[in-house]
Amino acid sequence: MVRPPLPIDPLLPELVATLARARRAVLQAPPGAGKTTRVPPALLDLYDGKILMLEPRRLAARGAAARIAEELGEPLGPRVGYRMRGDSRPGARIEVVTEGILTRMIQSDPELAGVSCIIFDEFHERSLQADLGLALVWEVREALRPDLSVLVMSATLDAGPVAALLDDAPVLTAQGRSFPVAIAHIDAPMPKRDRLESFVARHVAQVSAQTDGAVLVFLPGQGEIARVARALTLPCPVLPLYGALPFKDQQKALTPTGERRVVLATSIAETSLTIPDVRAVVDAGLARRARFDPGSGFSRLVTERATRAETAQRAGRAGRVAAGTCLRLWTKGEDGARAAHPPAEIEAADLAPLALELASWGTAEGDLAFLTPPPAAALAEARALLTALGALRDGHLTAHGRTMAALPTHPRLAHMLLTAGGEAAPIAALLGARDPVISEDRALSLRLEALRDTGRFRRDRAVPLRDGALKDAKSEAKRLARLAPRAAYPGDGVAVAMAFPDRIAQRRRGEAPRYVLSGGKGAQMPAGDPLAGAPYLVAVVTDGAPRDAMIRLAAPLSEAELREHFGHLIADERVCTWSKRDGAVQAREREVLGALTLSDRPWTTAPPDALALAMVEGVRQLGLTLHGGAALFQARALRAGDARFTLDALTEALETWLAPYLPGVTTAAAWRAFDPLPALRAILNWEETAALDQRCPEHYVSPLGRRIAIDYAAGAPAIALRLQELFGETRHPTVADTPLLITLLSPAGRPVQTTRDLPGFWAGSYADVRKDMRARYPKHPWPEDPTQADPTLRTKRRGG
Question: Which of 429, 508, 543, 728 has a CB 3.0–4.6 Å from the CB of 476, allowing a cystine?
C-alpha cells in the first residue's frame, strides 16, 4: 500500500531519536497530522518489546488499530491489535488499548513485562483514567522500569505542565495540514418554542444544499443524533457516528464515497477519528461530559456548552482536505461566555473507582504524579464509601476490596455482585444504563420486570419501553452475570441496598412521604407513588438536591431484612442530648444504622456526668447569663485582668468549670434557679483567690463594721451606703489605690450624692445636703461637722 504523506512524517526521525535518548517525550500535533497512525509504526525498529497506545474511546481504538495494520499491509491480529472491554484482537508488537484496560494491566503486572513503550494519545481530553494511567506508568518507570519509554501526544494541550510532570521531558511540535475555514454564526439564539432537533435539522438542510461533499454535524449524544436524523429529509445519506454504534455502522461514516452525505457525530469526531471528504461543519455547540451525580451516586453524562478549544477543533474538521465552512448554531456574542478549555475529569467525577485503584496500588494520591491532583474532599468521601462497602479497613485494602477491584464495574456494583451473586446483575446493568422504561413510577421492580421478562411485560403492562436502552441493559446484565460468583440471592431490595448502604431510607414519623437517608440527607417521594407509604426503602436514584431530594428510583425494604443483612452496620447508641423543643436533657438508648433510628427508649441509668455534659450544651443554647453574686464575682475577676472570666471564655470552657456542678440540673427551669457562683469560685486555686481578694476585695467594711459588696462592673469599683454610715470617716475609701465611687443614700435608701472625694464632699456640698435632709428626715442626725460625728447615732435622742 502506498501511504499518502502526512504532516507528522518529517518529524518522525527526530521523535525516534528523542525517545532513544530520553525515553520520554511530549508530542504536540494538531488533528489530522497523522500522529495516531504513523507514530507507533515508526517506533517498531527502536524497541524489541510491545508498544501500547492508549486511546480514550473504543471506536478510536479499534479504528486506529485497523488503520495502522492497513498501512503496514497486514491484517489485524498478528502484529497490530487492540484490546477493550468485551472485544480484543491481541497484537504482538503494537496494541491499541482503551484506558481502563491499561490500568488493569498495570495492577496485574506492575513491571509491564514485555512492554517497551506506552503512548498516551489524545491526552488533551484529560479523562480520569488517562490521568491515573499516566501517574501509574510514571511510578512504574521510576521504581521498576527505567528503560520504559513514555510518550504523551496531544492536539491542544499546553505541553509545559505535562513535560514538567515527566521530569522536563523534551517537547516536539508537528505542524498540521489545514485549509482556511470560513466561520459563521447564527443571527439570533434558538427560539424557545423550537426543539433542538428541528432547529439543527433546519440549518443542516440549508448547509447540505450548498455543499459538495460531506457535512459533519456535532451533537452532544446518541439521543440527539437519532432525533435529528428523524427530522432530516435529504436526498443524500444521513449517517450516525457515536461510540456505542455497531462497528459496521461506524465504518459507513468513516469510509470515503466522494458523494454528498451528512454525518451526525458526537465529540468523538473532534480529534479521535478522521472522517473523509468533509467540506462543512455544523456545530450545535454542546458537549456531554462525565460529572459526579450525587443523586445517583455515580458519574453521569451531563450536557454543557462546548468550550472554545472544542469548538475550534470542530471547525478545523472542515478544512482538512480543502477550504471549508463552519456554521455555529449560536450567536457571535455567546462566544465570550464559553470556557476556554474543558475541565479535567478528575475535578468533577466520582472518585470511588479512583480511590479503589489507589488502594489496590498501595499508595496515596500524593505519591503519584497527577497532572491535576484529585480534590481532597471528594476523595475522602469516596474512601468513606469504600469503607462502608468493606473494601477498605483503616484505610487499607481488604481481601474483599481486592476482589472488588478486579471486577470491571463501579465499586458499588462490584460489592453488590460479589455479595448478592449473579442474580443481581440485572440491577447492576440497569443502574449503569439509561432507564429502559418510560414511566413516572419510581419502582425499580418495574424496570427489573421489563428486563427479566420483556415479552410478558409488553403483554401485561401498558408502559412504553426504550428498546435501545433495554437491549444495552440486557447485554450488560449477561456480561456481569458471568463475572459474579454464585451466592444465595437475598432479594432485590437487599441487593440494591448492598450497593447503596448510604441510601437506605426511613420514613419520618408523621411526615410521610418524607424520608431520612442512612447517609444523613433528607429525601421525599411524591404523595401518590405506590412506594410513598413504605416505612423503609432504598433511594436508588434521587434528583441530587442537597435538601429533601426527590427520589426518582427506589426499592422497598423491610426492617427484618435490614436486621438480617445489615446487622454489622447497626450500632447500639446511648446518648444524652439537649432537647431545645422540650427545654430539657434527653437520655435515650437507641439502635442506629447511620442516621436511621431503628429503636429508641429512655436511658434510665444514664451517668450523672453524661447528663451534665448534655446540660452544658443546653446552657450554650439558652445562653450563659450571670446574676447576683456570680455577676459580682465575674466583674472582680475581670477587674483583676483574668481573661478566663470573659463571657466568651466562660462559655467555651463550660465543660471544664460548670459541668462538675451540674448533676441534678437537667431542665431550663432548673438552670434558671441554679447559682453558678461556687463553680465560678472553683476556677481559681487558693493562691489565685488570695491574690484576687488582695487586689480586688469583695467587700468594703464601713465605719459601722458592716460588709458592703463592691461592684466592679460599672467600670470603676463602686459601693452604695447610707450617708450617716460614713460619719467620722475623714479619708476617701480606696481599693488597690483606686478611689471607690460612693453613692451616698438617704435614710430611705435613695441616692443623694455620688463622690470620689469624701473629704471634699464633707467640706463642700454636704452643707446643702444637710439643709435639705434635715427638713425631710428630722429624726435622723445631721451634724454640722460630719467628720467628728458618731456613725452609730442613727436617730436623734429624744429632746436632743
Answer: 429
State the Cα–Cα distance between residues 509 and 581, nearest whole angstrom.
Answer: 16
Q: Mean pLDDT, the chain, as a whole number?
A: 89
Mean pLDDT, rounded, for 13-25: 96
Cell of 574: 446511648
E-strand stretches of 63-134: 80-84, 87-89, 94-98, 115-120
Q: Which residues contact 694 (CB under 8 A, 6 or more apart)?
A: none
Element holding 379 (H helix, E strand) = helix 376-388
- Contacts of the segment 399-402: beta carbons below 8 A, 24+ positions apart: 401/356, 401/359, 401/360, 402/360
Residue with more model confidence, 369 or 754? 754
Q: How many whole angstroms separate alpha carbon 23 and alpha carbon 142?
A: 12
Those residues with Cβ within 8 angstroms of residue 140's Cβ, 6 or more apart along the chain or in another chain = 106, 110, 111, 112, 148
Say how far apart CA 270 and CA 262 lie, in whole Å: 16
- CA-angle at 728, arms to 725 and 732, nearest 5°: 85
pTM of this structure: 0.74
Count other Cβ atoms within 10 Å, centred on residue 701: 11
Q: What is the DSSP string of 640-666?
A: TT-GGGSHHHHHHTHHHHTGGG-TT--
d(CA 238, CA 261): 6
pLDDT digits (tens, 9 = 90+) for 678-736: 999 999 999 999 999 988 999 999 888 899 989 988 778 999 999 999 998 999 998 87
SS3 readout for 441-457? CCEHHHHHHHHHCHHHH
pLDDT tens by residue, 42-58 = 999 999 999 999 998 88
Phi first, then psi, for residue 356 (nearest 5°) are: -70, -40
> Which residues have a Cβ under 8 Å from the Cβ of 47 and sit 6 or more positions away?
116, 117, 149
Residue 571, number of CB atoms within 10 A of its CB: 11
488, 475 contact by CB (below 8 A) = no
- Please choose, from the candidates 94, 85, 132, the residue with its C-alpha nearest in 3D space to the C-alpha of residue 114: 94
Q: In sequence order, what DSSP letters do the residues of 133-163 get, joined into one string?
A: HHHHHHHHHHHT-TT-EEEEEESSS-HHHHH
Looking at residue 797, what is its pLDDT?
A: 47
Cα three-residue angle 731-734-735, rounded to 5 degrees:
160
Q: Report angle CA 200, 202, 208 to the nearest 5 degrees.
A: 95
- Using CA atoms, how far apart are residues 519 and 703, in angstroms rounded to an integer? 71
Instruction: In whole angstroms, give the CA distance from residue 125 to residue 56.
Output: 8
Give the closest residue to 178 by CA, choosing from 15, 14, 29. Answer: 29
Give the C-alpha separation, 23 to 294, whole Å.
42
Angle between helices 247-254 and 58-71 (to 10 degrees): 60
18: phi then psi, degrees, rounded to nearest 5: -65, -45
**Residue tagged 506506552 (cell numbers):** 118
Cβ atoms of 486 and 421 closer than 8 Å:
yes
The pLDDT assigned to 272 comes to: 62
Measuring CA to CA, which residue among 114, 109, 112, 133 is closest to residue 122? 133
Cell matching residue 483? 463475572
> What is d(CA 262, CA 238) in angstroms, rounded to the nearest whole number?
5
Q: Are 341 and 306 in contact (CB under 8 A)?
A: no
How crowded is residue 707: how many other Cβ atoms within 10 Å of its Cβ? 11
